[in-house]
Design goal:
8 strands; 20% strand; eight-stranded mixed β-sheet
Length: 202
Amino acid sequence: MGVAIRTAGEGDRELVGRLLDAAFQDDPVSGWVFPDEERRRTRHPRLMAAFTDIVLDDGRIDVTEDGTACALWLSVPAQDHGLDPEHADDEGPARLRAEVDPDNERVEQIARLTAEIHPAGAAHAYLWMLAVAPEHQGHGLGTALLTSALDRCDQEGLPAYLEASNARSRKLYERLGFDLKGRPLDLPDGPRMWPMWREPRG
């Protein structure tokens, strides 16, 4: 469909953070992490900025040239998948909570719960977040970003993994070759997330 895509750099930090905030303000998982709407308006941008920093430092962010959509990817080696829930010395989620919203245990809890279901033992590309500005959703931008990245995965023989946070995104991922990986994650008193895996295509 002719969508121009580039790799984000340091100068895109604020753009990506704003995109993530706008796209996920009304997402069920964001609503669970920040159930109070006023608190979500003030603290959710901090969480999205923290995610942006992490991926700019250690991963790759694809962004459409017009700045209306982005995808955050991390490269996960076979012997590691981020947080190991059995290692108490991994304080990443606790640091994230302290930075974003110290009184909100769900900021830390979501990181630990998703880490527990994250597949280990196979190198893969991890789609942490896919964001399209609300006024541009439904126009194929997310599909274009994903297709570009999944083409790279196919060329490298690399599987891809993600957690879908709502039924609409799950359908998009299924159309692009992702299948449910294990059991869904039901957040305590909250919504469901779907871990999904895609094998590379020859």
